[in-house]
Amino acid sequence: MSPAPAPLLRLNGIRKSFGTLEVLKGISLDVVQGEVVSIIGASGSGKSTFLRTINAMEIPQQGTIDFGNFSFDWSGSAGRRPSAQQLQQLRTEIGMVFQSFNLWPHMTVLQNVIHAPVMLRGVKKPKAISDAETLLDRIGLLEKRDAYPAKLSGGQQQRVAIARALAMKPKLMLFDEVTSALDPELVHEVLTLMASLAAEGMTMLLVTHEIAFARDVSDRVLFFDQGVIAEQGHPDQVLRDPESPRLRQFLHRILHNDTRHEVSP
Amino acid sequence: MNHSYFNDVVVYGPGFMAASWLVLWLTISTIIVSWICGLAAALAQRSDWIAVRGVAEFYIWFIRGTPALIQIFIIYFGLPQLGLRLSPFSAGVFALGINSGAYVAEIIRAGLSAIHKGQMESSFALGFSRAQTMRTIILPQVLRIILPAITNEAISALKNTSLLSTITVVELTLYAQTLISATFRPFDFYIAVALIYLALTTMLTQLANWLERHYARMS
Ligand SMILES: Nc1ncnc2c1ncn2[C@@H]1O[C@H](COP(=O)(O)OP(=O)(O)OP(=O)(O)O)[C@@H](O)[C@H]1O
Ligand SMILES: [Mg+2]
Fold first, then answer.
1. Is any atom of ligand 1 closer than 6 Å to the C-beta of A44?
2. How far away is chain A from the Cα of B41, in angstroms, using its nearest Cα?
3. Residue A250 pLDDT > 50, yes or no?
């Protein structure tokens, strides 16, 4: 066996509380280059919070992170935060796509895609535009280049949101239930795009309720339960032959009624 | 008829023209001051520091709870007692600008709260700082939302310049008053002043409508 490659992302003992509510109870995870990791779990189990600690959108109280040049020990003296430069570097190297597409409505599709490369990476505008056009062509939306987001379908908006993140040439992509807000007939086009990214070797961490998709694209599936990774492994094992009763229950529920229509309290 | 209106225009027209220009300058200057004060106060209200928020709250509370005329008097007649003497024009612009700024702050605050928090999230996640996000993502959207309200506020500021007649700024009202005391024709001259204000406010509304149509193409 060849030696395991150094992980692209290493998290150790991540803890996060909101007030007295402990949402993440010590999560450790290594992700290697090119790996696709899916996260499943019940509502409120901490999946989004976990994803958001990776790019420091949420600041954990404990734990360490190593990602490229960025190393940080959150357990250091209380209130210590990364510098503005460190944060920017971390976030420009990690792309994140949300359930709500959050395109900027006052900018055209093209402007949405070039805004960050031009402002944050100092890419010259003509270069940024030609890069963006290549990306838009790839997601099949080049002809929408000058349209405003309001004129696009949800699926198209989400694909542009993905392109906007990709324009920064991230080393890691985080997807948080990116198809949950879409009409069922629009889910496919977004999943197809994500699958093609995975096939190209993009390192991805995705929270999803699309079990079939998770099975098809991921190298590893994590089951979150009450703030811990309760079970993990190859999708064939975790999704077909779960060990814990809680995961079995969860899969049963999700496969037999569509939880996307679940109303959260 | 012992006078002709045509003759009036020839005789008094240039004077009214000069006074109208002054009103226009007063208004533009007031709007600039009010936007600076309003934006600062609106952002201060969202500050992490309680003292900064407190100052902004006090400013808005004080301005909205006292008459504009008294605010003008405090700045023009009151401040010299503390050693700060301003020209009537500057005192007027500051007083009206600070006054209008409190209302602008409330308008901007409402506009800010209308922006979905996902707009900031997606910007932060890409690596933009708070200031970059405000400047390039949030405020341009807020501007479109608040345009109608901010136009109304600009029209108020325009009309309020007539209050500056009380501190010897020879704008339209005071100019008309000087003519009236010489000619005893209050009806004619006050109507003339009203018509000029009407022309100015209509122009402002047209400008705002044009901007709104311009932005409407986007969403
Ligand atoms: N900013 C916050 N302040 C307070 N509590 C929060 C905050 N964000 C999340 N929580 C709480 O933390 C818990 C975990 O939330 P999180 O969004 O991570 O769950 P999730 O697994 O993503 O759920 P879902 O499947 O519904 O998206 C929930 O109980 C939630 O109410
Ligand atoms: Mg979530």
1. yes
2. 24
3. yes
* pTM assigned to the model: 0.86
The residues near A257 (Cβ < 8 Å, ≥ 6 apart) are: none
CATH, range B2-218: 1.10.3720.10
Chain B residue nearest residue A150, CA to CA: B219
The pLDDT value recorded for residue B3 is 65
CA distances (Å), origin A137, targets A163, A255, B16? 10, 35, 61
Size of interface A-B (CB pairs under 8 A): 68
Burial class (CB in 10 A: 0-12, 13-18, 19+), A31: buried
Domain locations along chain B: 2-218
Whether the per-residue pLDDT at A220 is higher than 80: the answer is yes
Per-residue H/E/C for chain A = CCCCCCCCEEEEEEEEEECCEEEEEEEEEEECCCCEEEEEECCCCCHHHHHHHHCCCCCCCEEEEEECCEEEECCCCCCCCCCHHHHHHHHHHEEEECCCCCCCCCCCHHHHHHHHHHHHCCCCHHHHHHHHHHHHHHCCCHHHCCCCHHHCCHHHHHHHHHHHHHCCCCCEEEEECCCCCCCHHHHHHHHHHHHHHHHCCCEEEEECCCHHHHHHHCCEEEEEECCEEEEEECHHHHHHCCCCHHHHHHHHHHHHCCHHHCCCC
